[in-house]
Amino acid sequence: MAAPLAPAGRRAPDSLRTHRSAVVRGGRPGEPRRVAYLYILPALLVFGLFVLVPLVRTAQFSLYEWNGLGASTWAGLSNYRDLFTEPQLRGAFVHALVLVVFYAVIPVLLGLLLAAAMSRAVLRGMGFFRVVLFLPQVIPMVVVAIAWRQIYEPNGPLNDTLRFVGLDSLARPWLGDYTWALPSVGIVGTWVGTGLCLVLFLAGMSRIPRELYEAARLDGAGALREFRAITLPSLRGELAVALTLTVIAALKTFDLVYVMTSGGPGTETTVPSYQVYNNAFLLGRVGIATALAVVLTLVVFVATVLINRVGERGQR
Amino acid sequence: MTLSITRTSTRHRGVPGDTDRRQGAEGPLEPSVLTVRGQESESARRPARRFLCIGAAAAVALLIGACAPGDDGDDADATGAPTAGDVATDPSELGDVTLTVWDQEVREGQTEQIEALNAAFEEAYPNITIERVSRSTDDLRTTLRLALSGEDAPDVVQANNGRPEMGQYVASGLLTPLDGYAEGYGWFDRFPESVRALASYSEDGANFGEGDLYGLPQMGEIVGLYYNKTKLAALGLEPPETTEDFEAALQAAQAAGEVPIQFGNSEPWAGIHEFGFVQNQFSDAETIRNLGFGRPGSSWTSDDNVAAAQATRDWVDAGYFVDGFNGVSYDSAWQAFAQGTGVFFVGGTWLVADLTSAMGDEVGFVLPPVGASGQHLVTGGISIPWAIPANSDAKEAAAAYIDFITSSDAMTAVTEAGNLPVIEADQQTTTGLQSEVFAAWAQAGQEDLIVPYLDYATETFYDTITVAVQNLMAGQSDPQQFLDTLEAEYTAATGS
Q: What local confidence, expressed as pLDDT, does residue B11 receive?
């Protein structure tokens, strides 16, 4: 069949079938034919030009010491070694891991909780709540970042509220505080990600046959048992999708950090993407920046593969 | 690439019917997101391997074919430098030219003066059309790198004269040396040596402050002490003359329930100015200049620098800076000062126009107080100079433009827009805050009080010192750790 070659999806075989008799001489039906490559050639060219070539060039730059302006010198793998020896660069990856908790783990848990609650109760204005919770996904991240920066200001709404209710001791310059800056950025990620997870899970739950729940109830299962035995296993696919999207978002965060903290205070909120930008465009260390980008790409790739492995195992 | 496609295509054969079976197994109710992903991950597994082969082949081909980064097109500077004889100083004879100018004159008074000058220039020379691209300082800084190294470079740019920018550009041959134009236009007479030195580099970019001229500034800049006249008068105090006066004033302000020093350091470059302001009171000019220009011969860990770092920390601990300054942006800080929160504000002369229009006569400006350094040393120098990229295709028009915006008439326009002109400041008529700033600038010039911005020192010192100052002022590192960090980078760069 030609389907594996045509990424267009399940309709592709039909459209190919009409061409088959005209193009193929000999060859068993269902066998891949070279002509199929013609169909993907345009896409492959675009993909190659805008994804593969930059990727390879990036990998190549990472082996040089280059300031982005003049001549470069061969550096071998020393840029990669610096990633592990320079505390600032290493720290960026640690911060990214912390952000994974805020961007992925918490939104998925919150999303599950909300979805389970929302699907059990008949809620008036359900559509409205869904839209409101999903809204952060629609707003451009830069706008989100600017809005939250205002909220976190030393005299911003958050601190005002805390002082108003008498919690003066909790008020602090959130984004300038060495302990709280990173969690503050992370919470924005949670705010953005939760809606996406919720909508995914609600869609997934709507597809679970009601009969399963009825059967479970007849067997005397409570809400928790229902959730563990029916809802959670049925949502494995959605969980994989949600985790993939949110983990990638966490690992490649840039806009929030760039707008809200510029990596500060000190280097408390630097993340890999910010360091790529900082090293390439501000410090003129293109070799380091590209090495960082390559490692970040690999980390994202591995994370995606792992999550999908786990997600698929349950479906088969 | 085509070769590897045809070869790999014969190797993998799909099992007939296996996609159909899978389709049947899919539930009709599955949400669309999942369907697409699920199908892709399964059906794409085998082609994925094939794509990897193609990708690997392409990668190898590219790696072999591609040259090392930065190899191409570094012959630009060969055509760059003009000699005195062949400079045409009459722009009207240049024919029709479109001049692309990248500037960062975005603050109130800056936009006003550059727009006025651009209009006047186009009126004087109708054959030249100016295409102005205006960005904030930070945005210009990040886009300039790519723009300068490209074939289609702008014709005039504002490039920060420190080592991280101008130094690197000069070393890579991306800026045009201006000495030929300087002779033609008489810039050597117009600008004193002290001003030109701040935009001069040796040809290899290694030495700062000597060699060829690479840019001309429009404005002077000093980072002094703004104070709220009403509040200081209410405290019964005069503007501080010495560090002791200043500390007494801070104490008095605090006792009166005022914010002693308004400060915002979330864009961390403000910390360079704040620490420089303190250091100027403790360390001598020679030390600060060596450290700032990245010249050997001084040390960050000397006693006077230790005292400066300690004083900074003590002032933070005493609560003299506004609460939560690390979370306050620079603009919020000066705006809060303008609205009456804060007795003092350490800031540059680029704020004169903004603060005058916000505060009128209520704001004053003095040089930093005198401490152990014995002088009113003040951080500053020149505004970001105007330079000509080596890849510009309209260098003569560019030089004419730079000449025009730094002429005597231009200095008057700069003044009228509320700024501090780098030369001929004494010939302007000013009132209020502006006249205080002009007086301070004149004093700084006469007594040789100006010391450089500390981030000029090395190519990465901006990053180092901004983080270090944030850490010091937030109590994350003690003065000794702070200075050790700076000393390590300084000695590594100067080899001393």
A: 33
